[in-house]
Amino acid sequence: RTGLVWFRTGLRLHDNTCLFAALQENEQVYALYVLDDTYLRGADIGAARVAFLFDALHKLQADIESYGGQLIVRRVKQAPQQEVVAVAKEVGARAIYLNRDYLPYPIQRDRHAKALAEAEGIAFKTYPDILLVEPERVKTETGLPYQVFTPFKRRWENLVNVPERYSIEPLLGRLRVTHHVRSAEIPSLAEYGLSLRQQIEPAGERRALQRLEAFARNGLPVYHQRRDFAADPDSTSRLSMHIKWGTISIRECYRTARKVGGPGAQKWIDELAWREFYHAVLYYFPHALTGPMHPEYDRLPWSENEEHFQAWKAGMTGYPFVDAGMRQLNQTGWMHNRLRQVVASYLCKDLLIHWQKGERYFMQMLVDGDWPANNGGWQWVAGTGTDPRRATRIFNPVLQQERYDSQMEYIRQWVPEFGSAQYPQKPIVPHEEGRQRFLNAFKAMIGPT
Ligand code: FAD
């Protein structure tokens, strides 16, 4: 019997649900990745994320080859589902195996792929893998989706049930090479008109596991105390890009946290729950992907000041904490969570620039750019999302710095010219002025209460 594994995210061999199922059920297993131009040439992706993906594919390819298999690579301009079914026929697969995805475009694509496969007599087998609990399962007692995090988390925690780690090693010899089926090279960034200017995290499952192990030793036990101190490289796991692309299994993250235990690990599990919450939000409220979840909180007189937007992007606002965050993003494709909140607040509150502009810039720059977390994070800060009561919460960039970077280590690292004549002498919009303007606009928007 022959099976075909369709990799999308989940770019690893170990603890990968669809791969494990395929290896158990078949004597020979082929692996496929389809590069889809709809995604790779889209407006919401940039060099960092594509580079990480290509790096992950190279490592996955090498890992598969080390077990005597091959990663078949195909490139399509659109509609990868036709290519997937074509490859399944070429290798003689009786079933296609894949991990489920929960965003609107992949759901539609996979539905279409299933219909095409089944029309050819090929089984289409999907598995839960990328989340600890699938959105369908986390509902209120009356069967409704949650819109608020805390009750979601309570229910979610009761549903998490992670099996012990299993060994896949004895089965990996079932991965096969084919000489009859065309396979493309993994392309270069240049072929997509991209060039990488950021120093990004390397991909690969070995690297991800090392990072998890190091974090479990150094950061996890004190995560509840250290997680907001951006200058400390162990303050958070920096696993987000590995989690996004599945170069690490989310179950392995959870198992590790449970093994370490204590308040640090518990707090970290809360963050994993936020990720699942935002996945569930977009699953049930897909309109939030392209606009405000609560449109009534979005009707502000948004500023079109392009100079301000450019200064924010470049990390030249005159607030060194904000600028340090933006430069960390521009130089590494990653930004510490505390800073993501601070810079987002400065953009959509102090500068009154629409949060979707920031959301898109993040997606273009982030190596971990992930629709649910990014959209959820921006709508949370803007106050248009799951917790609109936060709308009038405005981060003070000076107080935030005094609290979380009191020795200015983070600022010195990313804004080395701070204090010299090269650095803006005053903020483009002083916080108090921006704050007042926002609050007045907000009051006018909601009207007399
Ligand atoms: P850790 O603190 O070690 O957390 C572990 C994991 O939990 C993370 O890797 C991530 O998968 C998940 N997680 C942590 N915090 C959150 C959160 N608030 N929401 C959802 N998941 C979370 N995260 C992304 O993965 N991709 C994004 O595109 C993204 N955009 C964001 C935009 C804004 C405006 C904000 C405020 C947050 C955003 N986040 C995003 C969430 C969070 O900032 C990052 O997940 C975190 O900084 C990644 O660093 P880490 O892996 O060291 O996190």
Automatic annotation (TrEMBL):
GO terms for biological process: response to light stimulus. The record marks W302, W355, W378 as: Electron transfer via tryptophanyl radical. The keyword Lyase applies. Its EC number is 4.1.99.3. SUPFAM superfamilies: Cryptochrome/photolyase FAD-binding domain (SSF48173), Cryptochrome/photolyase, N-terminal domain (SSF52425). The keyword Metal-binding does not apply. InterPro entries: Crypto/Photolyase_FAD-like_sf, Crypto/Photolyase_N_sf, Cryptochr/Photolyase_FAD-bd, Cryptochrome/DNA_photolyase_1, DNA_photolyase_N, Rossmann-like_a/b/a_fold. GO terms for molecular function: deoxyribodipyrimidine photo-lyase activity; DNA binding; FAD binding. Keywords: Chromophore, FAD, Flavoprotein, Lyase. Residues 1-132 form the Photolyase/cryptochrome alpha/beta domain. Binds 1 FAD per subunit. It is an enzyme of class 4 (lyase). FAD binds at residues 223, 236-240, 268, 271-278, 368-370. Its cofactor is FAD. It holds the Pfam family FAD_binding_7. Belongs to the DNA photolyase family. This is Deoxyribodipyrimidine photolyase. It comes from Chthonomonas calidirosea (strain DSM 23976 / ICMP 18418 / T49). The lineage of its organism: Bacteria, Bacillati, Armatimonadota, Chthonomonadia, Chthonomonadales.
